[in-house]
Amino acid sequence: MRGIVDLNRSGVTFKPWNRRKLQHRSSLFVLSLSLVALLCFFFYYTHIPSSLLSISAENSGARVPQCRTSTLGQKFLWYAPHSGFSNQLSEFKNAILMAGILNRTLIVPPILDHHAVALGSCPKFRVLGPKEIRVSVWDHVIELIRSGRYVSMADVIDISSLLSSSLVQAIDFGVFMSLWCGLNIDVACSTDLNAQSFLFDSLKQCGSLLSGTSGNLDKCLYAVEEDCRTTVWTYQNDNGDGVLDSFQPDEQLKKKKKIPYVRIRRDVFKTLGPGKEAESASVLAFGSLFTAPYKGSELYIDIKKAPGDERIKTLMEKTEFLPFSPEIVSLGKQFAVNTIKAPFLCAQLRLLDGQFKNHWKATFLSLKQKLDSLRQQDSQPIHIFVMTDLPKGNWTGSYLGDLARDSDNYKLYFLQKQDVLVIETAKKLAAASHSMKSGSVPSNLGALPKVEKQCFPHQLPDALLYIEETVCSCASLGFVGTAGSTIAESIEAMRRFGVCSSQTQTGL
Q1: Is the predicted pLDDT of residue 448 greater than 70, yes or no?
Q2: Which of 24, 95, 227, 449 is the most exposed place for a label (fewest CB within 10 A)?
Q3: Transmembrane residues, as ranges (predicted)?
Q4: Do residue 163 and residue 215 come from a single domain?
């Protein structure tokens, strides 16, 4: 084209036969491109395993090949977990409750890397929107599968009693992805790079649709766009449906951040249940389901009782505390009995993460006051299990370093990722594969291949945190936790619900 322009600028004109020649060349060029495209198509699809294409090919003509309403015969609920493990567990409990109220099968997510996905601040009305956070979570799940680090929440948390009681149904996220997206995720462990590339690209496209980037999809997807800035979900609440919540952004914040939001209390069943547009969709997709008390209200979900629904009341009671899997609890107790071998105090000291790095003095002061009290009661060395994010090499110059040096009065114990007990627990978790045994898989899958979790995780799950929390639940001399830490709250709950049996406690 540049040559033609230059010639015209020089005053040279093309004769008719030149135009015909150009047209002929153009036709040949288009024909050549078509042949190349055809060859590329043939080459690409002959190098993708039939096991990967057998599911997706049959639906390739539909706009939403993933929407198998007539095949799956179930309605699902998925959501976007985020932040650290304790926050993810809190959201998981909320998701179980929402799935029970709406009578949907819960898609149980994997455990995300610590803060791989962040929500933001609900009190400041500065959060990642539901659509964006769903995309972030889906992409991170793909990365977990790609790197062989996929571990389901149901592998670590024991939900067997919930499922056996039929209070809620569940399906593992990886199984759901495989069935709904029409892909064999086991290809992720294949040595065929073309097959892997095709798989992950296809999963990403499927996730984009199910995240609501194209909006709601008739009878397939309803993407909930309400979040903590606009909504407080309720159920059978006496305060009414559609009324203003007591917590609203103040006028100064509205002006400074140009916030148009008004927080409304909405009954989740009346808004998303029978007779509503959302109810007909096979997949109901929430964003974050995190909530917490704030200024006399809840940030997002305020469901604490269900006076007219005994099933939901029972479900709320059962989800108030969800224990770790038997493998974790057993080996945590084993460390308390066989390694510490004496009554001990647990000190959970969060010192490096976020706001906690600025509160060392207050954190150590609580521990010192507890130890001084114990010293007055008994002159024997005090045994302390230390759970901290501060590496042992950095204890020098801190109160922890002082305790470690005073071996006549204090005996310190701690666990590390490379310890035999931690590795043994991780191996048992991987072998148990609770998520695949306890989840629901539709029985009417027709020609779809059997979904199995044979190849991931490649890496052992990180079980350190779970074992540490279990050991702390067995601390018969008491527990000192970091103020404001969700990990401390989890340990307090474990102690309150007696995770460490009375026999174990008396034996220490």
Answers
A1: no
A2: 24
A3: 28-46
A4: yes
| 211 and 313 fall within a common domain | yes
Which of 492, 437, 431 lies closest to 461 in space, CA to CA?
431
Provide the pairing of β-strand 120-121 with 479-480: unpaired
Under 8 Å between Cβ of 299 and 286: no
User: DSSP states of 7-47 as a string?
Assistant: HHHTT----HHHHHHHHHHHHHHHHHHHHHHHHHHHHHHHT
List the 243-244 sheet strands across, edge first: 231-234, 264-267, 243-244
SS3 283: strand
Q: Please state, in angstroms and rounded to a whole number, the distance separating the CA atoms of residues 359 and 351.
A: 7
Residue 448 in tokens: 């779809």
**Are 80 and 137 found together in one domain?**
yes
Question: What is the pLDDT at residue 458?
Answer: 67
Q: How far apart are CA 110 and CA 154, in angstroms?
A: 8
Listed residue (63, 56, 70, 62) closest to 282, CA to CA: 70
Range of the domain at 348: 326-417+462-507
How far apart are the C-alpha atoms of 489 and 335, rounded to whole Å? 22
Helix axes 310-319 and 85-102, enclosed angle (nearest 10): 170
Two structure tokens written together for 156 = 């670590």
Compute the distance between CA of residue 181 and CA of residue 204 in angstroms, rounded to an integer: 10
Side-chain half-sphere CA neighbours of 395 within 13 A: 18
Please report the sign of the dihedral spanned by the C-alpha atoms of residue 300, residue 306, residue 308, residue 312: positive
Does some domain include residue 411? yes
Summarised one tens digit per residue, pLDDT across range 177-222 is: 888 888 888 888 877 888 889 999 999 999 999 999 989 988 899 9
Do residues 205 and 252 both lie within one domain? yes
Element (H, E) at 362: helix 360-377
Q: What distance, in Å, lies between the first and last C-alpha atoms of the chain?
A: 87
Q: How confident is the model at residue 74 (pLDDT cuts 50, 70, 90)?
A: confident
CA-to-CA dists, residue 81 to 92, 135, 287, 332, angstroms: 8, 11, 8, 26
pLDDT digits (tens, 9 = 90+) for 389-417: 999 999 999 999 999 999 999 999 999 99
Residues 306 and 281 in one domain: yes
**Which residues are paired to 385 by β-bridges?**
346, 413
Q: Most distant CA pair in the chain: distance in Å?
A: 110
Residue 54 lies in a domain: no
Question: CA of 422: how far to CAs of 326, 414, 463, 470, 506, in Å?
Answer: 14, 11, 6, 12, 25
Cross-strand partners of 267? 234
Instruction: Examine the domain organization and report whether 263 and 334 are in the same domain.
Output: no
**Inter-residue contact 124 to 295 (CB < 8 Å):** no
Residue 435 lies in a domain: no
- Given the structure tokens 């539909």, which residue do they identify? 62
**What's the count of helices (H) and strands (E) in the chain, helices before strands?**
21, 16
Q: Which of 466, 463, 454, 464 is nearest to 148 (CA)?
A: 454
Main-chain phi, psi angles of 172, to 5 degrees: -65, 140
